[in-house]
Amino acid sequence: MGKINYQSLIYAYSRIINFYNTNGRLPNYVTIKNVGIARDPNSIKEVRVLIYSGYDASTNCVNGIKYCLDAVKLNSVKFTYATSTVINSNVLASYDVLVMPGGTSGLSYLRNPNISASAIKSFVSNGGGYLGICAGAYAASIAVDGYYGGWGLADVRCKAVEYEGNLNISITSAGASILGLSGTQTICHCNGAAMYAVGAATSLATYADSKTGYEGYIAAVADTYGSGRVILCGPHPELTPRIPQMVVKMIAWLAKVT
Questions:
Q1: What are the boundaries of the signal sequence (predicted)?
Q2: Of 2, 22, 226, 228, which sits 20 to 30 A from 121 (CA to CA)?
Q3: Cα separation, 199 vs 98, whole angstroms
Q4: Same domain assignment for residues 51 and 123
């Protein structure tokens, strides 16, 4: 039927002994209950991150993600990372979270023969995490209105945006819980998506000004896909003015360690 962990076994025997003490006989049957185990504060959980670095990914974005993972330390979590110009099932098998950074365009990712859409979907559906920033968000959405359909990892559609520069985003209550941030944050933007939910996706941040032309639209969103987790982010927290905590907290949530 399955394996019984040590704590559940001890709990079951304790219940048997208690039943015998109360009733003077052994029970006719025992139901094994799963017991949640508190994390040992001294134990270290390793999160293995793969960052796509192909010809259509921005080197600045790739390096910015590396910087954030090196700069921020989370209790009981160790981040290790690598880059790859190819994304397929064999490559993904060694990692917990895939990061598709900003790049040429979401459409370029969709058409790139070195990026397997089926492998990405299977990876996330089976419990992996996906972080898409800018081009990576466009590609993983259901569609970019008026342009092309995406991988559909999150229940959002995108509006194509043409704005480069800093802007403000407002962190939602759900965003505060996942990102550890609050209020209004100034962040870099390079033509990233303005999103709106068409399903159960959860907004983490919205555009707080009109620079994109889509004030109030979703800037960052969290969702699930099968057994896995997905975050899409239009702006660039990994670029100046960096918000390293935002990047690391997103990856930690995707890896299910926070």
A1: none
A2: 2
A3: 23
A4: yes
24: left (phi over 0), alpha (psi -120 to 50) or beta: left
What's the pLDDT tens digit per position in 178-197? 999 999 999 999 999 999 99
The reply to whether 122 and 152 lie within a common domain is: yes
**Same domain membership, residue 115 and residue 4:** no
144 vs 217: CA distance, rounded Å: 14
Instruction: Name 155's Cβ contacts closer than 8 Å, sequence gap at least 6.
Output: 142, 197, 198, 199, 200, 201, 223
pLDDT digits (tens, 9 = 90+) for 90-118: 999 999 999 999 999 999 999 999 999 99
CB 243 within 8 A of CB 237: yes
DSSP 186: E
Question: What is the helix (H) or strand (E) element at residue 132, kind and residue range?
Answer: strand 129-133
